[in-house]
Structure formats: C-alpha cells, structure tokens
Amino acid sequence: MNILRKPQTALAVGLISCITLAFVFGGVSAPQIAQRLADAAPAAIAQAGGGDQVQARFTSPNGWPSRHPVLVGGEPLDETTRARIARAVADLPGVGGISWSDGDMMVEDHFNPLHCQEDVQALLRARTIRFEESSSRIDIASRSLLDEVATALTPCVGAVIQISGHTDRSGPEEANIALSAERADAVRAALVRRGIPSAALRVEGEGSSHPVEGLEPTDPANRRIEFSVISTQPLMPTPVDTPSAR
Questions:
Q1: How many CA atoms lie within 13 A of 161 on its CB side?
Q2: CB 71 within 8 A of CB 81
Q3: DSSP state letters, 52-108
Q4: Helix residue ranges, H only, 127-211
Q5: Cα–Cα nearest to 49, from 69, 91, 79
C-alpha cells in the first residue's frame, strides 16, 4: 500500500469542500450524501480495527458537507491498521479522497482524479469564471469561485489537469485563440497562487472551435474555461515530502 505524506498540505488536501454533489449523484443534496456517509463510517471503521478511536469527519473547514473525509484520532494504531481503516472508509460508495488529520493521505488504487473533474464541472454549471472585457484579467467577483475550484482540485494533486479557454466566434480566430490561451493561463496562475502545483496544470487556447452544444458559435455564453483530467498518475512521495516517523 502506498501512503502519500505531505504534512505541509495536509489540511488543504484533507478538508475538501464538496457542496455540489447534487449534480453528480442524480439530484440528491450534498448534506444528505455527507450524512449518509457519516452514518455508515463508524461501522466500517470498527470492523477495520479502529473501534471508537477513529472518527471520519465529512465536513470542510467552513462546515460545508464533503465526501472527502478527514480521519481523526488513531495515533497509537500501527500503520497497517490505519491503512486498513482508511481503505474501509474509502470503500463506502460515494467517498472521495481520504486523508488523516495528522498528514497521511491514502492514494493507492482509490486514487480517482475524475472526481475532481466532476466536482469542478458541477461548480461551473452554476457560475462562470469571468474576465474583464477583451482582457485576460480575471474579474474580482470570480475570486471566490476560483477558491472553490482550487479546493475541488486539491484531492487530485498528482494528476495532470488541462485548463482550456474558449471564446465565441466574434473577431478574427487568431485573436480568439490568443485571448483564450491568455485567459486559461491567468486561471492557471490564480490556481497556483491557491496552492495547486504548477506542474499539475496545462493550458490550451481553443478559440471558438468548440462552442457549447446547442449554442450558436457567436453566443457570448461560449466564452468559458473548462477543466479536464488528461493524466491519472498519482503523485508519488519524495524524500522532501516524507516526514520522519511520528
């Protein structure tokens, strides 16, 4: 079993908000899903040897429901037992990435970066990352949305994520491609400032070549940013990432 330890990012990796589960799970509300997972976790933890020593918290730092639990407690347990507990919680249907409050993150075969893509797509269904007119400068009103996008991407650090910029079909296509690339790069820079490693992000300017299905190419709604996972290789620990024994 591979355990990725990154204490410098443990809180960011562990405490992941997922307020948009309704889009992914057929209309069921995020609080309902988080509560269902929280109700099922104690039995799984107990069966794996955690007894009443370990708790799974399905909430973000802001109290939002999340399917990315943080496991709390269990410090006296050996690594094999801790890994077995994490595996048992991860096997609950609907659970996302698992982390321990003291810095361990389980990645092994449960690593599924497509969850990140789904979460970000759900965020962007309701809102759009906006830019100043004819500019790559991100509108100040989109900062909170970028915070949420960074949070949704954090569990999949190690995957390679492509940021694609799109425009409508107004103006010369050469200029559209350049502007869409500049906007994608601006989003990349904003996410790096929010803790997403630059090596995990790629940018592409698509111009107006891929309008939203059902929209006319000239419709302004085609101006958008999209995210897609293009590699699912999890990040492996390095000597810098791996702390000394607890």
A1: 36
A2: no
A3: TTEEEEEE-TTS-EEEEEEEEE-TTS-HHHHHHHHHHHHTSTT---EEETTSEEE-T
A4: 143-153, 173-193
A5: 79
- Coil vs helix vs strand at 211: coil
Query: What digits encode the pLDDT tens for the residues 35-55?
Result: 888 999 999 999 999 888 999
User: Which residue reads 């869409």 in tokens?
Assistant: 180
Q: What residue segments make up the domains of the chain, in order of their start?
A: 3-106, 114-231
In the sheet where 160-166 sits, what is the strand order?
201-205, 160-166, 224-231
- The pLDDT value recorded for residue 187 is 95
- pLDDT tens-digit series, residues 117-150: 777 878 887 788 988 878 899 999 899 999 988 8
Helix (H) or strand (E) holding 116: helix 114-126
- Number of neighbours of residue 176 by Cβ within 10 angstroms: 22
170: number of Cβ within 10 Å? 14
Whole-number Å distance between alpha carbons of 50 and 139: 47
Q: DSSP for 11-37, please give it.
A: HHHHSB--TTHHHHTTT--HHHHHHHH
Contact 45, 56 (CB under 8 A): yes
| Topology of domain 114-231, CATH | 60s Ribosomal Protein L30; Chain: A; (3.30.1330)
Structural tokens at position 192:
């790096």
Please tell me the pTM assigned to this model. Answer: 0.52
